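Hi there,

I know you've been waiting on this one. I reran it after we fixed the sequence typo, so this is the corrected version. Both the input and the resulting structure follow.
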Amino acid sequence: MWVNNINYNLVGCVVVTLLAIFIESLIIPRVLLIAKKKRLFDTPDFRKIHSNPIPRLAGVTFAPVIVLSVLPVLCILTLLFPNQVSYFNPAFILSASCFFCGLIVLMLTGVKDDLIGVRYSHKFILQLIAAIFLVCSGNYINHFYGILGIHEVSPFLGIPFTLLLTVSIINAINLIDGVDGLAAILISIAAAVFGVGFFVTGSYTYAFLSFSVVGVLIPFLRFNFSTNRKIFMGDTGSLVLGFVLSFLAVRCCMLTPGKSPDNPLPVIIAASVLFVPLFDTIRVFGVRFMQHKPIFYPDKNHIHHKLLGLGCSHKQVCLVLGLITLFHLGMNICLHQVVNVNILLVINVILGIIENIFLNFRHGLRGLHGLRNTD
């Protein structure tokens, strides 16, 4: 029965992915056509890289496609194999209801932001409301696995920390979306890793959700990299997918029955796949704070801007940052059994600092070389 159960859920993961690819491939050209006819463009300004108006409403398709790919598969598997699989129970219904409420809040926020703009203060409040829905779904960080010497965490500490973490991840994904394909590549890597992890540990509904995100982004990337049919995910897409990743990361880090509190691998995996956007956001906010600027002040200090300044193309930026993510993930998985989790955290932070110092150094050399050429 165990083997059969695995087979059913493996088929479910494949079907969810293919269904998401199929539905997204059908919908996104229609959204592109509507955006062009109604002239719903992302217009260039001083902090943006593109020079021509580009449609940016691809993100409105993400949440509906995720729902249309995950829920039908759950229903069909439950109806066909009621004795082998059972996804629907009161706890799942409560968790799913709260999750989709938060998803809708951020989807509507993103649509408004893409069309007419939303003030940062209002956006933060709505992100916090979505984070509250996430916590109400029964998910919050309840164990630190020895990070900073902290193990079990009470709800009085875990819930506020989860709210802060959720808002941070949402903003990190939103801010890293500055180069064609970058946010989608990093999100796809994270979602695929989460999906494999959830599948291996038997959390199949979360695996389905993870692979639906991968399926949604495959057709989007084709259009995002296109020259004549380009479309951006916009704030709608980055907010929605940031929330989904927050949900998956929190669920991955939760200590559930059967998991060992002595094994920090879940939190290591979650931190590794989100390292690039989170570290870059913290660094940029820190620089703005030290320069006495508002932390949401727009600039070109993000890591993708530095790579572009070195002459990298958009695809090369995606490749470099994707490989950095995989490097941190592989290194952390290999070292987690022989290196204390706190030392591993310090190693990752030091590597992040070295990576940014190297980029600054190369950028400075390039600028100096350019000045010499002009002289």
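Quick highlight: The chain is about 70% helix and 0% strand.

Best,
R. S.
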